[in-house]
Specification:
Number of strands: 2
Strand order of the largest sheet: 1-2
Shape: globular
Length: 561
C-alpha cells in the first residue's frame, strides 16, 4: 500500500483537491488544506525533500507579500470602483446611446462600445455589468429590445474587462507565468478590440436577421438635438474625420521599428487631442462650428480617454510600470470624481471596502495555491503533468486543443482567479518546454477564462445581471406601460451566442498568432510542427539544487513589470 501511495502520490493529491472543491469548501482553504495534508503524509512516508519544502513555506508566503507586481490589483480595483460610482458610465451610456439611437441596434452598439471603454478604465467585471444593467437594461426593455439580446449584450460587454488592459486577470496570469505584466497588456491589446468587433458584428447580424429584436430609438427619445431639430451629426462626422486624419498622419510618420501598441496609443492620443482642442475652441470662442451632439460626445469621451492614456499609454511607451500606472489611474479616478462633484466619504468608504475584500480574496487564494504547489512539487506533480501532457498526440497543437477544452470545462465550476492559481501553474512549464511563448499562452488562456463569467448556470456576470434585472413585471416610469420581467432563462440563453463568439476568438488567436505578437514585435510565438519531449529523471545533484532554489524568496525573482 505504501509503495502504491508513493508511486501515485501526484494524481491522488490532485484528486484530493477535486474532492475538497466538490464539497463546496472555500478554494483558498481547500488548496492550503490539501497541500498541508499531503505534505505531512509525504513526510511520514519519507518522500525525499518534503520536509525541506515545508520549511520553505514561510519564506514563500513572505515573498508573496513582498511582490510589487500584485500591488497593481488594489490600485486598478480602486480606480474602477471610484469611476463606477462617479457617474462616468451613466454619462457615457446616455451620450453614446443618443449618438447611435437613430439606427437599429443603436443601444446595443452603445453598450458594447461603452463596455470596452469601461474595461480600459476599470478592469472590474462586476462594476461594468452592474452599472450597465442598472442604466441601459430598463431603456432597452422600454423600447422593445428582445430580452435575450439585451441581457447577452450587457453581460458580455462587462466581461471585456477581463481581456482589455488593465485587466486584473492579466496581472494574475503574469505573476503565475513569471512574465511581465506590460508584455501581457501589449499582447492582449489587439485581441481585446478584435473581440469587441466580433460583438458588434453579432449585433449587426441580429438587426439584419431579426430587426424587431433591436429597434432604433423613436424620435421622442432622441433628446440631443439642434435648434432646427436635426441631430447634428454632420459636424460630428467632420470632427471625427479631422481627428482620424491627424491620428493617421502621426502614425505614418513614426519609425517602422515602433511596436504596434505604442503606435496605436500615441496615434489615438493625437486624434483625441485634436478633437478636444477644436471642441474647446468652439465653446470658448463661440465659433458655432460644432453641434451640441459633437460637443457633448467630445467632452464626455475626453476624461475616460485621457485616463486610458494616463494608465495604458504610460505603460505601453515604457514610462511607467503597471503598478505605477495603477497608482496614477487611482489618482486620476479621484480627480474625475472631484470634477463631477461626486466624491464624498460614502463613495470612498464603499470603494476602499470593496477593494480590501477583493485584494484579500486574491491573496488568500495565492497563499493557498503556494502551499499546494510546494507539496505538489515534492511528490513530483509537475513531472506527472508533464508526462501526461507531452504524451498527447499532435504535439503543440494537440496540447493547445486539450488545454483549451480543459479550461473551458473547468470554467463551468471555477472562476478565473481559481483557474489562474490552480491550473495555470501546472500547464505553464509544459507549454514552455513545448516551445510556446508564455505571453501568447497567457493571452490565449485569458480569452478562454473569460467564458467563466458567461457560462450558464454559474457565470458571475450572469449573477451580477440577475441581481439588477427586474424579477417582476413593473410599470415604466416614463411611458406608464407595464414591462414584463426578465427571466433567468432569458439571461442564460442570451449569454450562449457570446460564449460561442469567445470560443471563436480562442480559435482566431491559435490560427493567427500575429493578433498577439502584433503589439509586441514578436516574430514567432509557437511552432505548429509536432514536437516530442523526452523527460529524463533528474540527477541527484540537480534535485538537491532544485530544493535549494525553493528556499529562495519569490520576491527576489518576481516577474518584471
Amino acid at each position: 500500500m505504501t509503495g502504491f501511495l508513493l508511486a501515485n502520490m501526484a494524481p491522488i493529491m490532485f484528486g484530493g483537491l477535486v474532492v475538497f472543491l466538490l464539497l463546496g469548501l472555500p478554494v483558498a482553504f481547500s488548496l492550503a488544506a490539501c497541500g498541508l495534508l499531503f505534505g505531512f503524509i509525504g513526510i511520514e512516508l519519507g518522500v525525499h525533500g518534503m520536509a525541506q519544502l515545508m520549511q520553505a513555506l514561510p519564506l514563500r508566503i513572505f515573498g508573496i507579500m513582498q511582490n510589487d507586481t500584485l500591488l497593481a490589483i488594489p490600485f486598478f480595483t480602486f480606480m474602477g470602483l471610484v469611476l463606477e460610482r462617479s457617474g462616468m458610465a451613466e454619462d457615457l451610456l446616455d451620450t453614446i446611446g443618443q449618438l447611435f439611437g437613430p439606427i437599429r441596434g443603436g443601444l446595443a452598439y452603445a453598450v458594447i462600445l461603452v463596455g470596452a471603454m469601461l474595461a480600459a478604465t476599470t478592469g472590474v467585471v462586476a462594476a461594468s455589468v452592474i452599472s450597465m444593467g442598472l442604466i441601459s437594461l430598463p431603456i432597452m426593455l422600454r423600447y422593445g429590445y428582445d430580452r435575450r439580446v439585451a441581457s447577452g449584450v450587457i453581460a458580455a460587454s462587462g466581461t471585456l474587462a477581463q481581456i482589455i488592459p488593465p485587466s486584473l486577470v492579466l496581472i494574475v496570469l503574469a505573476d503565475q507565468l513569471g512574465r511581465s505584466v506590460g508584455d501581457l497588456y501589449r499582447g492582449a491589446f489587439i485581441p481585446g478590440f478584435v473581440l469587441t468587433g466580433l460583438y458588434l458584428a453579432y449585433v449587426l447580424a441580429v438587426t439584419l436577421w431579426r430587426p424587431h429584436w433591436a429597434p432604433a430609438l423613436p424620435p421622442e427619445a432622441r433628446t440631443i438635438r439642434e435648434p432646427d431639430g436635426s441631430p447634428g451629426l454632420r459636424s460630428l462626422g467632420m470632427l471625427a474625420a479631422l481627428s482620424v486624419a491627424a491620428a493617421l498622419a502621426f502614425g505614418t510618420t513614426r519609425p517602422d521599428a515602433m511596436p504596434t501598441d505604442e503606435r496605436i496609443v500615441l496615434s489615438l492620443s493625437v486624434g483625441v487631442g485634436v478633437a478636444f482642442v477644436l471642441a474647446l475652441a468652439n465653446r470658448l470662442l463661440h465659433l458655432g462650428l460644432l453641434s451640441h451632439m459633437a460637443e457633448r460626445v467630445t467632452f464626455v469621451l475626453i476624461p475616460p480617454l485621457a485616463l486610458i492614456f494616463l494608465v495604458l499609454g504610460t505603460i505601453f511607451i515604457g514610462v511607467a510600470t503597471p503598478t505605477e500606472g495603477g497608482a496614477m489611474g487611482a489618482v486620476g479616478a479621484l480627480l474625475m470624481a472631484i470634477g463631477r462633484r461626486r466624491l464624498n466619504l460614502k463613495l470612498l468608504r464603499q470603494a476602499m471596502d470593496s477593494t480590501m475584500k477583493l485584494s484579500s480574496f486574491v491573496l488568500f487564494i495565492l497563499i493557498g495555491s503556494t502551499v499546494f504547489s510546494l507539496s505538489f512539487q515534492g511528490v513530483d506533480g509537475p513531472k506527472w503533468v508533464e508526462h501526461l501532457m507531452t504524451s498527447l498526440p499532435g504535439g503543440q497543437m494537440g496540447f493547445l486543443i486539450v488545454v483549451n477544452i480543459l479550461v473551458f470545462v473547468l470554467a463551468f465550476f471555477l472562476d478565473f482567479f481559481e483557474l489562474a492559481f490552480i491550473v495555470v501553474p501546472l500547464l505553464a512549464p509544459v507549454a514552455d518546454k513545448l516551445g510556446i511563448d508564455l505571453v501568447w499562452f497567457g493571452v490565449l488562456l485569458a480569452v478562454n477564462m473569460q467564458t467563466s463569467f458567461m457560462h450558464p448556470p454559474f457565470g458571475f456576470a450572469l449573477f451580477f445581471l440577475r441581481s439588477v434585472a427586474p424579477n417582476n413585471d413593473y410599470q415604466d416610469r416614463l411611458t406608464g406601460q407595464t414591462v414584463a420581467r426578465v427571466t433567468t432563462g432569458q439571461i442564460y440563453w442570451g449569454a450562449v451566442p457570446f460564449v460561442i463568439i469567445q470560443l471563436v476568438m480562442v480559435g482566431l488567436i491559435i490560427a493567427f498568432p500575429g493578433l498577439v505578437s502584433g503589439g509586441m514585435g514578436s516574430k514567432q510565438l509557437f511552432d505548429t510542427t509536432n514536437q516530442v519531449i523526452e523527460v529524463e529523471p533528474p540527477e541527484p545533484q540537480a534535485q538537491e539544487q532544485d530544493l535549494n532554489d525553493l528556499f529562495k524568496t519569490p520576491a527576489a525573482s518576481a516577474p518584471k513589470q
